[in-house]
From TrEMBL:
<dbReference type="InterPro" id="IPR027795">
    <property type="entry name" value="CASTOR_ACT_dom"/>
</dbReference>
<protein>
    <submittedName>
        <fullName>ACT domain-containing protein</fullName>
    </submittedName>
</protein>
<feature type="domain" description="CASTOR ACT">
    <location>
        <begin position="72"/>
        <end position="126"/>
    </location>
</feature>
<feature type="domain" description="DUF2241">
    <location>
        <begin position="5"/>
        <end position="70"/>
    </location>
</feature>
<dbReference type="Pfam" id="PF10000">
    <property type="entry name" value="ACT_3"/>
</dbReference>
<dbReference type="Pfam" id="PF13840">
    <property type="entry name" value="ACT_7"/>
</dbReference>
<dbReference type="InterPro" id="IPR045865">
    <property type="entry name" value="ACT-like_dom_sf"/>
</dbReference>
<dbReference type="InterPro" id="IPR018717">
    <property type="entry name" value="DUF2241"/>
</dbReference>
Length: 140
């Protein structure tokens, strides 16, 4: 297992964005719904229900109401969960490209869900940010 990185300059320079295959959708299901066989990428428990992020074909098969259709980008840098600035840096880069993002942090990597139609432009913006290797001052 690698040591998590907390230095912002190093995080940006080594973030290695990878576009995962397929479309993913956000949907909301009632609390208590058994999602164990759904190939769930992420869940968030809220008062209103359980938000699930699942492959588009799973949502279609189950007849789920699609709230957002997204591409899933994983940053393949082992970011420290207490690192400061990485989310702000990539969100700013995507914002400058007029691309919204929804972020889920895992224990090892950050996962970014961007509008499906903006996936190529999002990857270009993230790769440009990584290649610039800029610090927080110029990334924001």
């Amino acid at each position: 297992m690698t040591t998590p990185i907390s230095n912002l300059q190093q995080l940006i320079a080594s973030m290695q964005p990878v576009l995962n295959e397929g479309a993913y959708v956000y949907a909301c299901v009632p609390h208590g719904t058994d999602v164990s066989g759904w190939e769930v990428a992420a869940t968030v428990r809220e008062h209103e229900g359980l938000t699930v992020v699942v492959p588009q074909e799973v949502a279609q098969r189950l007849g789920l109401e699609v709230l957002f259709c997204a591409a899933w980008i994983t940053l393949h840098v082992h970011s420290d969960l207490q690192a400061v600035g990485l989310t702000a840096a990539f969100a700013a880069a995507l914002g400058r490209a007029n691309i919204s993002c929804n972020v889920v942090a895992g224990a090892f990597h950050d996962h970014i869900f961007v509008p499906w139609d903006a996936r190529v432009a999002a990857m270009a913006a993230l790769v440009a940010l990584q290649q610039a290797g800029c610090g927080m001052e110029s990334a924001l």
